[in-house]
């Protein structure tokens, strides 16, 4: 049965910017009321107003997904204000760029605490409610770098902390699908490639090479290139396009949500045929 969004309640972490904001607005346009959770209070307020401008209810909650108490507060506020939660979008994420021997353990703990444990915390706080109701939809944001860790080559050089965290999200999500799908709860993992957002600004950079990359990204020279002028293998999507792809994939009950064609092509060319895994998951766990 096709998923309906009207009358549903969605909680979106990292909802004040980029992909989270685009998802909040896309879902609101389809009739979903939204709880947005983020650390950026200014942007939270702005997105809350945008959601209300679309005629939906919005609850904006200050939340650092790396803190247990913040997630517990998010769940408590979501249930008391909205009464239920149908969709949980564990999307907040950050980057650490730098050579692996130079990245401090503090930075490792920071990225794992947000990108993996933030997702785990979200599930921990909201899953009992979904299990009780026997329904719900959990989407976790990973990355193309949650499926491969060496393309482009710069990722292999200074993106290891990021790809490690994002591989963790794919593994966690796959396990969840197997556990929860038979219980009426859907799970998807979102693996975007390059998407025009604020992630470069919200990331940490270690060492001189990474400083150069930071400047390049902050100046948006990479993201400002006309799409038609990009080399064929590079694809940058707008966050609104990613959101539309996510909605379509949710309607199709897809586990893997891979909006970028170049990412899909890369996975296929490497022989990591995710469609075989998709088929196994769908055949084994969907009644
Ligand atoms: N932009 C890309 O190219 C790209 C590619 C693949 C995956 N992703 C993933 O997409 C997700 C969304 O990122 P985006 O690109 O929209 O970036 P973004 O920086 O525009 O949005 C991320 C939001 O998360 C918030 N955030 C950061 N740390 C947080 C924390 N500890 N608690 C709560 N909120 C926090 C930020 O304030 C920001 O509003 C991330 O998980 C990111 O890793 C992005």
Description:
The chain has one domain (9-285): NAD(P)-binding Rossmann-like Domain (Rossmann fold, 3-Layer(aba) Sandwich). It has ten helices and eleven strands. The protein has helices at 18-29, 41-53, 68-82, 105-133, 153-158, 160-180, 208-218, 239-251, 261-269, 274-285, and strands spanning 9-13, 33-38, 58-62, 87-90, 96-97, 136-141, 185-190, 195-196, 204-205, 237-238, 256-257. Strands 3-2-1-4-6-7-11 form a seven-stranded parallel beta sheet, with helices on both faces. A two-stranded parallel sheet has the order 5-9. A two-stranded parallel sheet has the order 8-10. Helix 1 (18-29) packs across helix 8 (239-251), helix 3 packs parallel to helix 4 and helix 4 (105-133) packs parallel to helix 6 (160-180). The longest helix is centred in the middle third of the chain and has 29 residues, at 105-133. The site of nicotinamide-adenine-dinucleotide has 30 residues, from helix 1.
